[in-house]
Structure formats: structure tokens, C-alpha cells
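Please predict the structure of the following assembly.
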Amino acid sequence: MSLLVGGASQVATPRGTQGCRGEDLGRLEVLPGAVVRCDDGVIAFVGSVAEHDRRFPPADEVFDAGGGCILPGFVDPHTHPVWAGSREDELTRRLRGESYMDIARSGGGINATVRATRAASFAALLDAALARLDTFLLYGTTTLEAKSGYGLDLATEIRMLEVVREARSRQEVDLVATCLAAHEVPPEHRGDTESYVRRLVDEIHPEIARRGLAEAVDVFCEEGVFDLAQTRRLLADAGRHGWRIHLHADELTPQGGAELAVELGALSADHLIHVTPAGIEALAGSDTVAVLLPGTSFFLRSRWAPAREMIRAGCAVALATDCNPGSSPTESMPAILALACLGLGLTVEEAVTAATLNAAAALGRAAEIGSLEPGKRADLVVLHAPTYHHLVYHYGVNLVRHVVKAGRVVVRDGRRARA
Ligand code: NIG
Ligand code: FE
């Protein structure tokens, strides 16, 4: 099955099979009037119509981009998309002056969602997750990482990850599962973090690994949650479990999380709002991707991660939504691109690379997705705008008009195209 996407104003894409750094982060290839040919779900050609017609037979299907800009599908490398309940009350409390941590300590925060999620059935969690995945796709995300972490007990962590596994076969967005059972200390271990760390190491992590429900592990390394020494112990068995590592690092306070992520060869260190100069240096000299989540800074009204310093130092910077019910309840990568430019100070070109190729690198998938180049999976979006700049310039609305996933049109004119 072949699909030719033509009639575009431009194709804009980063290039390569690994995370970009420094000046390369801002180097997008822009091909005016180019076409993209997809053969059996894989990109076969990107270039001029004339060259396409010389080299290829007519495609089975031709799709008209209607004068829009074609970009790679967004890759969202940090989300918490499975949960029950909602926490809009906490927004109200924060707007009146309480902090995220104050609210967490008074029974809200992650543990409020844990209560609702433990009480929810598999079917209810699946329905809620599928509704969110629908929104992700309509906003142009074609691959996302999905964390557990609102169970904090074996049964519910398994249920969440089984929801991710089931959701994989029910809709088109590719899902990469991460075990985040170390997201918070659950109420039954309150005041005795050590006992929960032991339970994670001895029981929860091994059982989730045995069931093959995740390909990576993550820990919320933070003051009052898991300290650096506990985080180190929680990640010590990752290799034995066959897991790659992501780390919630230096989000609310500087903890040395970035340095630990680098030391352990993590795929990514995420948040980094309070990363130190030493952390930046460590990241810059490593393959660990710095995943920035400006939606969280915006929504918690906290400071912005030092993105320019990181880029200047040579870190591979990526962007993600952090979609979760407490600190960043959005599925929209275009919103994150706008915040990345206007909050973190990225250029539009840097933001596009960070949300596609570098985000793929944060998931260890930069050889397969994240750019529009022959041999990569045919995941792309068509904007309702003539250039990629509009994604940030015309902020707050959804400019994603069509989405192609693995060579099939799955969103047409802003609506799901049902087969
Ligand atoms: O990435 N930092 C920890 N986890 C989430 C917040 C989750 C929540 O508040 O429910 C985050 O910001
Ligand atoms: Fe998070």
C-alpha cells in the first residue's frame, strides 16, 4: 500500500538518527512544495514531485495537503495518561496561593489521584485513557511514552500498565510504557519511605518486569519523595529487569538528579527546572536527553528550566507535555511548543526538533521516528497553515489538520478518519 502526500506548501523536518545539539537543534530542513511518499507504512521518498514521478510508479492513494505545512508527527516522551478523577480544585487552591507541595502534604496531589485510580475499574481507566489518546492524536502526537504511577501498589500498577497494553491495540498512537511505581509514597507507607522502597525493589519492580509490562523505569527523585540514595537503589536493578531509565530530576528542588541519570546511562532526565551547572555539564557530556516540560512551569507558575544554558552547553534537549491531572493537564504538543518558545526561549526551529527527533531520542527511537526521511516510519502531520512558524505564532488553537500514522490517514480535516 503506497500513499503520496502532495500539495503541501512545505515539508519541514530535522534530520538524522540521534538527538541534535547546539546549532544543529535549530537546523530544520525546509523543502518548499515537496511531496512525501509512504510505502507500506515507511517513508520511501521526500522531495520534488518531478523527482518522485521519475523514480516511483504512481501511488495507490494520493492525499492533498491543501497548501499546508508537513511536519513529522510529534513524539511526546513524558506523559502520565492513565488516571481516574480530576483535580481542578487544586488549581483553585494554587491560584489562591497554596503551593503544589502544600497541597500534596494535605492529602491532595499525586495521592488524591491514587485514591481515585485504585477505586477505578480496568474498563473505566481504559475509557479515560482512550479519550485522552484521541486528543493526543488530534493534536498531532503519533508516539508517546505512558507512565504508570497512580497505583503505588502492585495490583493497580499492573492494571495501569495493562490499560496501556490494551490501548495499544485499540487506537493508532504508538505507546511506550514506563513503570513509575516510585512516583510517590503511598498512604500505607506514609512516614516510612524505606519500607515502600524495599517493597518496590523486592516485589513491585520484579513482578512488573516479569510480566513484560514496561520497557523502562522512572522515579520521582525529589525532596520529601525519594532522595538520591533511594533513587539509586530503585534504579540499581533496571538493567537486570531489561529496563531503560527515565528520571524525574531536579523538578522542584535541586537534588543531583541530572548527574545520577547520566551516571546510570539513563535515556532521559526530565523536568530539570532546578538543574545545577554541574548537572548541565554532566548532561552535555552524555547521551542522556534533557526532556523539558514547560507546561508544568506554566501550570504551577514556577520558574522555567534554564533551556538556553543547556543548549549552549551542548545538551540534547527534548520537549514533552507531562500530561497528568496535577501539574500539566494537557495533551497538546503545539501548546508545549508555544511555551517552549515564549517561556523557555527556544526558537521555533529548536522547538520543532525538540518535539520530534530529540523526543524520539529520549525514547531510544531516533533511528525509527522523529524526522521525515526515507526508512523512517511514515508518521506525519499536515498543518492548517503554510509554514511551521504558525504552530507557535497562531497559538492556543489546533492547527493540526491531518495526521498520517504509519502511512495511513488517521485524522482528516481535524476529525478521526475511521477505517
Ligand atoms: O511530572 N512530578 C511528579 N509527577 C508529575 C505530577 C503528577 C501529579 O501531580 O499528579 C509531574 O509533574
Ligand atoms: Fe511527570
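The chain has 16 helices and 19 strands. The first strand starts at residue 2 and ends at 6.
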